[in-house]
Amino acid sequence: MPHFPFQRLQADLAELIAKSLPGTRLPSEPDLVADLGVSRATLREAMRTFETQGLIRRRQGAGTFVVGQPPVMEGGLEILESMLTLARRTNLDVGPGPATVERIQADDDCANALEVPAGTHLVRVSRTMRADSRPVAYLVDTLPEDVLHPEELTSKFSGSVLDYLLQRGDPLSVSRTDITASNATADVAKMLEIQRGDVLLQFTAKLLTVSGKVVDYSHSYFVPGYFKFHIVRKVGGA
To answer: What spatial distance separates the first Cα and last Cα of the chain, rounded to whole Å?
Structure first.
């Protein structure tokens, strides 16, 4: 068993969750605080880890319930694919929540990323992706209005901007992606129904055409417990 108190607390909670059937209501916070000998703040910090992994779910006024092992979407990063394509290949039931489509003007960050003048008219598409009855990803795509008009995204929009552009026949080439761990802001936490400050896997990407034009600047936030990404790399000098 880990020596450090917080690691020991996490190990105790992991054991409690593992031996509980999905749907089981865990003991109340006061009971867990008394049983485990920790403060409420420390308990909440430890519980947040398991909630982020999708193993438990807190319901306001009802308590904390065991979810069980969540479905995992696994895929390589060598080829750019939409989350829906990845889910279909792994036979997981994943679907988009309602999309928010808005017209905005490019601020300095978007103007730099999309290589357009500040103030250029842009279209921003935001939506959650749901699996196992909960949001597991929050996706935000920002595109120049001459690439995508809001009116194009009808009720038949699948939730994937990438798939839409591919089906339309756009000559897409590569995606330049930064992968980081980030803490959920208040807005992102609200969309993912998690706590502010929870750790997320964040992809920040620019999608380019074969001519080198940047057509999409995206921010994707993934709940870690539901995703397993890998990359195949050649050995240097081989």
So the answer is: 41
